[in-house]
């Protein structure tokens, strides 16, 4: 028997003990018992044994969970239903033609506008015509719409020339400023810290993405976050340079809160912007920005089609996509393809009379473009009526096209999602069963995710007909839509929804506050959420 000075022995022992913690969780190489030195006294023995017991418990629990998942997925015999869904959507999908009709007869679907209200009614009537149990979920919000804009640039007031520009949403109701333009590069914190004073009272010229030649690993921020940073450094206006060639102009919100911002924000074309950056290097330039906009309370309506669950009616799977769009074109890609896919999933559910254990709610949100207004209203409503806990999972379809796999915020879903995906590959090898776990912001899944609710959707698809550059632009029109890509979104997402609403056990629950905090930090979302004033942790 070895004789030791207990405390020294303890310290010495703990280091190898820590390493063994890992080892224990792997169970196969449990050494501590054999290494337990009798001289350390029974205190140490008790400590070691209870810790070992704890890890054994943890290991048993995670193995049990894994087994149930594997067993559950093994028990998920959805092939027949998947085949039915596949056949029906391939033959009878109405997504393409109904989107075509909407873009030709109504046009854009800006929330709070006459078009927006028509689009809400059109969606309601369409779902009704499919036989769905459909309802409006009205909400009242501050909304914004553009009116007039003029941007002139020159070396002085006497040599101003007009430049093509669009207003970014939530710019002031009225603004008329003339000031020097200062190049703010990518518009990130780092771009200001060198000379913060330089931007006070000036108009900040900001590149929408990350400029070529920027330090490796430079991560861009959303245009609203870049505008917030410029405001913080005292800029009186913001000119954002779009990243798309051929003078394409982009709109979208410049507000992180969905409320009016104190300074005017506009977008100019890539070529104009890069030429302006060059000019400023040799000759200072001023800009005169004059605009008027509408801002006020409006009524809008989410459209909700409900399929009540059989065994677990109080467990709900929310399947959403925003119906609203910006007003520069008809929003065919953003988000015609997502929202009309969601309506066609509901059509398929009704047509095939699909029964699910859990309740499924297909939701067409309005107000997404103006700050996730409809999805925030939906979540607030469930909080008010005490049904938030019923939402077990949220699938979001925003510009989803021809998915090749599934994504989710929760990596623990991998086994189930890929097990179902493998069944889909048997039906169509065009589906690649890709899997992605991770989280981002700025779409309707966000209000659900910030309540700890697991989210997901399609993954790995490409936007059709090189439509990416026309995002939020005057080029986002129906000719960009691909019919088969849309059908693929409908059929694979209907299968995912059916499986999620029927699988015996969903292996993830709602994250608690600390778990959610750690998760959001792990996804690098703390900074953008802090800028948006949505980081509630101390
Ligand atoms: Zn969108």
UniProtKB/TrEMBL annotation:
Keywords: Carboxypeptidase, Endoplasmic reticulum, Glycoprotein, Golgi apparatus, Hydrolase, Lysosome, Metal-binding, Metalloprotease, Protease, Secreted, Signal, Zinc, Zymogen. Residues 302-491 form the Peptidase M28 domain. Gene3D superfamilies: 3.50.30.30, Zn peptidases. GO terms for cellular component: extracellular region; lysosome. Residues 180-276 form the PA domain. Homodimer. The monomeric form is inactive while the homodimer is active. This is Carboxypeptidase Q. It comes from Pedobacter zeae.
